[in-house]
């Protein structure tokens, strides 16, 4: 295999009535990723080709696209890994297309914001705390896996419920709601429950498992959603343990600076 | 229809079946919905047919005459098989929703082992049970 044929879905608003596929030929070089192939096309064949990217190393979550029928990160996908010389690339489904391979992720981020993805406490310590919150490694494990989410949207593109139900919040926002619900520093379950209990919530998920299969970071949104359902169910039965938010350790007051360690420099800003 | 700046790309019901590269659970998802709709349609038909009894014995005999024959017998068997699948798969889904058989959250280390892998044995056992019930039902109905 000396070259790869890229079938790229194209669409320019105001110019094209509907998306169409265009064929490009890219020479196969060792280590060629789908993102590299797109760059080759842009630099040598069609400078108008548009897609979104940033880090090139599977961290930023910008280059999610449908590659040979599966939502993946273009930067994380080696051509040889696909096992074929034909690569079919389309923008992530279930999101409107802005142009070519650029999906409109705004609705997903709006829903994510609705889930209050931040620490909520009733004691005001979030703003005034001067020390660290005490959290055990066991408490950390309850949510750590879900905190690796990079918001690439691959799970939303793969979910069959998102495909047919506009109201459903989708795997990413729900997994992030669970991530904060299970954080021992957080007390926001009652607030998030208002959003999670209705048609937007996790009960529309029937475990197709696609979100967890395609997640490039192993976040496993399907697991988060099922565990969230369990929490909601136990809450209805008043069986969900009501623990206090993790306390603040506070700054040590009787600590003395070890000899030979200089004072910290004075702040230069603020 | 495309707006000024965006082209809609939501898959709709096509997304149940034509979303792309599928796993086993995706097929169970689609089949669960289809069998649910099938059982609902049967239930409505059942209400219509049995309510004819209220119109007298003649109407009842006439309605029963319409739903006899090999075609309806096969249809009846399909409803039974759909019910076996839907009921057993529903039990699987309830167990998953109670957090059973999805596993505890773990540090994601490649190759990732997700809840889909953890619950796979349960899914296989449930499908074998559904197949066994469907076969036994077939013997009972046609044997």
What does this protein structure show overall?
Chain A is of the alpha+beta class and 270 residues long. Helix content of chain A is 31%, strand content 13%. Chain A contains eleven helices and seven strands. A five-stranded mixed sheet of chain A has the order 2-1-5-3-4. A two-stranded antiparallel sheet of chain A has the order 6-7. The longest helix of chain A is centred in the C-terminal third of the chain and has 16 residues, at 221-236. Chain A is globular and about 70 Å long. Chain B has 143 residues and is an all-alpha fold. Chain B has one domain: 3 helical TM bundles of succinate and fumarate reductases, CATH 1.20.1300.10. Helices cover 68% and strands 0% of the residues of chain B. Chains A and B meet through helix 7, helix 10 and helix 11 of A and helix 1, helix 2, helix 4 and helix 5 of B.
Range of strand content of chain B: under 5%
Superfamily (CATH H level) name of the largest domain in chain A: Alpha-helical ferredoxin
The biggest beta sheet of chain A, please?
5 strands, mixed
Element order of chain A: H for helix, E for strand: EEHEEHEEEHHHHHHHHH
Condensed summary:
The complex is a heterodimer of chains A (270) and B (143). In chain A, helix 3 (106-114) packs parallel to helix 8 and helix 8 packs across helix 11 (221-236). With 270 residues, chain A is of the alpha+beta class.
How is this fold's topology laid out?
The complex is a heterodimer of chains A (270) and B (143).
Chain A: E1 3-10, E2 20-27, H1 34-44, E3 64-67, E4 70-73, H2 79-82, E5 86-90, E6 97-99, E7 102-103, H3 106-114, H4 125-128, H5 137-141, H6 154-158, H7 160-164, H8 171-181, H9 189-196, H10 210-214, H11 221-236
Parallel strand pairs in A: 1-5
Antiparallel strand pairs in A: 1-2, 3-4, 3-5, 6-7
Helix pairs in contact in A: 3-8, 8-11
Chain B: H1 14-17, H2 24-50, H3 57-66, H4 70-97, H5 115-142
Helix pairs in contact in B: 2-4, 4-5
